[in-house]
Design goal:
- This protein is α+β, with helices and mostly antiparallel strands.
- It folds into 2 domains: 295 residues, Periplasmic binding protein-like II (D-Maltodextrin-Binding Protein, domain 2, 3-Layer(aba) Sandwich), CATH 3.40.190; 256 residues, Dipeptide-binding Protein, domain 3 (Roll).
- The protein has 16 helices and 20 strands.
- Strands 1, 7, 8, 9, 10, 11, 12, 15, 16, 17 and 18 form an 11-stranded mixed beta sheet that branches.
- It is globular, with a radius of gyration of 23 Å.
- The N and C termini lie far apart (56 Å).
- 53% of the residues are buried.
Length: 568
């Protein structure tokens, strides 16, 4: 059967890195710094990368992706496929077998019921789950016995490896979260801050938006791991101070996501304490265009849907002109150097799914001005700002606080000024912007601005779940506690129909063709998303830290159990 192509060879063998330590905790303490501070330890209640990655130290999925992008078993004993009987012939079920003897950090047994509970938790109709798209098409989840989990889909699922796979979809303990279903989920502070897990570390103390103190999980499945007895996960500050703490002072062992100018990193590396490590995955820095009226004065149910179109960004010519005015090559040079590439695509990798569009590569100020003239946006009162029917092209452009993003904002504001667009810049603390707090007006999900800029990515090598985020109905809204990934409030029936086709297509070449078409509908066909830079992920690593392989397909902390101290 052609639709089985993706599944027949999906199993992958996985050999852990050789142990470099004699016993658990023998290498003392390790320090990590993420300048975006975690605000919660539950990835189901936050789409922020810093929350997902911090959580991955404690709670784990059935399977995840290694540094090559290969799917590898984690809490499961193997990857189910058609060939080994784990995926049904009609592609409507997948059956996972848990490894024997797995324990939660509190000493109780991990069972398939915990996995079933996790699915119920995320799919609860009254809840808001940041990873809801991972469970799309799930009809039922059954615990057949203590070690066997069966997932049934409502139609053939050629790529059934989203549910409880990867750092964004880990298993949580049913006993701990039993009273946290639906609308009660955000209220379970202790569970959300201190989850009981199966990972190499446990939370000793969690200070939101500040610091996490962790220690080795006494019930971790490998008695020799982790090598580090304790860990400090420091949050906050900025990329410059994080880089200095690794490269120059040696205060930190690992610094995540160093969005700094390439010459700055090179100068810091001369400190001799650490090195920059780089990897390219599907990470894209982009502009998100708000398709709805962002006014916080509107009723929440109006603001969160398409009942009130944006006063000027609902005009695609405006969105296109804003894109045309940008010099992406200069952005790469200023912001990333060798760790960046110009991209016009939301999905620039892996190769099979990359459209490789080049329509946006050259800046075209003259063309952008002509397009706006033709669309009727003119400066009618001589104040330098284009207007039409009493509406001015005046943009609130927001992002998180870091040096590279503020440089980008300044340049883009200048270019937009050259086409008659007024721009107000706003930057927000990353811990707030990406925090997902349903009570905060400043989250990227609320999107109380016209344009916002950030980057995110997807786990694994298949973008189905990532692209499904833009399905009609996936917008953040009050009834989902403002969780949801379709922040633009994009809704296109043709797009949704193509998503359905994507979900039922197994042939890898055809899947690539569909993904490219979906990518184009969001980018060059609508300019809902305006890609800027295909970013290599740059982090800093101490010269005395061993056992780590930079992973751009999953959590960057995926192999923390294997870390060890190198003797100097």
């Amino acid at each position: 059967m052609k639709v089985k192509t993706l599944l027949l060879g999906a199993a992958a063998s996985f050999a852990l890195a050789p142990a470099a330590m004699a016993e658990r905790g023998s290498d003392g303490h390790v320090n990590i710094i993420y300048w975006q501070a975690p605000s919660i330890m539950n990835p189901y209640l936050s789409g922020g990368t810093k929350d997902i990655e911090a959580s991955s130290l404690v709670i784990e999925p059935l399977a995840r992706y290694d540094e090559t992008g290969a799917l590898v078993p984690w809490l499961a004993e193997s990857i189910p496929t058609v060939n080994n009987g784990g995926v049904s012939e009609d592609l409507t079920t997948i059956t996972w077998k848990l490894k024997e003897g797995l324990k939660w950090s509190d000493g109780t047994a991990l069972t398939a019921n915990d996995a079933k509970f996790t699915a119920d938790y995320c799919m609860h109709p009254e809840g808001g789950c940041a990873s809801a798209s991972f469970f799309e098409g799930v009809e039922s989840v059954e615990a057949i016995d203590d070690l066997t989990l069966k997932i049934t889909f409502d139609s053939p699922k050629p790529n059934p490896y989203n549910v409880l796979v990867g750092a964004q979809s880990p298993i949580i303990q049913a006993a701990q979260f039993a009273d946290c279903l639906g609308a009660k989920a955000p209220e379970c502070t202790d569970a959300n801050f201190n989850p009981i897990g199966t990972g190499p570390f446990v939370v000793d103390e969690f200070k939101p938006n500040d610091v996490i103190s962790l220690s080795a999980n006494p019930n971790y499945r490998d008695p020799a791991k982790p090598a580090f007895a304790t860990m400090t996960f420091k949050g906050g500050g900025d990329a410059v101070s994080a880089a200095r703490a690794v490269f120059e002072t040696g205060e930190m062992d690992y610094a995540w996501n160093l969005q700094l100018a390439p010459d700055v990193i090179a100068n810091m590396e001369e400190g001799g304490m650490g090195k920059a490590i780089v990897g390219f995955g599907p990470l894209v820095e982009r502009l998100e265009m708000n398709l709805t009226d962002p006014s916080p004065d509107l009723p929440a149910d109006v603001r969160s849907t398409r009942k009130a179109p944006h006063p000027f960004l609902s005009d695609m010519d405006v969105r296109k002109a804003l894109s045309m005015a940008i010099d992406r090559e200069l952005l790469v040079e200023v912001g990333y150097g060798q760790a960046g590439k110009v991209t016009c695509d939301l999905v620039p990798a892996p190769d099979n799914y990359a459209a490789k569009n080049d329509y946006c590569v050259g800046q075209d100020i003259e063309g952008a001005n002509a397009l706006l003239d033709e669309a009727g946006w003119v400066d009618s009162d001589g104040d330098g700002i284009r207007d039409k029917d009493g509406v001015k092209l005046s943009i609130l452009y927001q992002t998180s606080t870091n040096a590279v993003r503020q440089d980008f904002q300044a340049l883009i504001k200048q270019w937009w000024g050259e086409i008659g667009v007024e721009t107000e810049l706003r930057n927000l603390d990353a811990s707030v912007f990406f925090g997902g707090d349903p009570g905060s007006p400043d989250t990227f999900q609320k999107f109380y601005a016209d344009v916002e800029m950030y980057a995110n990515t997807f786990a694994g090598t298949d973008p189905q779940q990532y692209l499904a985020a833009y399905r009609c109905g996936n917008e953040p809204k009050p009834e989902s506690q403002w969780q949801g990934e379709n922040i633009n409030r994009f809704c296109n029936e043709e797009y949704d129909a193509l998503l359905d086709e994507f979900a039922q297509t197994g042939d890898i070449e055809k899947r690539g063709e569909i993904a490219i078409e979906l990518n184009n509908m969001l980018t060059k066909d609508s300019y809902t998303i305006v890609p800027l830079v295909h970013r290599g992920r740059v982090s800093g690593q101490s010269n005395t830290l061993g056992g780590h392989a930079l992973n751009v397909w999953d959590s960057e902390l995926w192999d923390a159990a294997d870390w060890y101290r190198i003797e100097e």
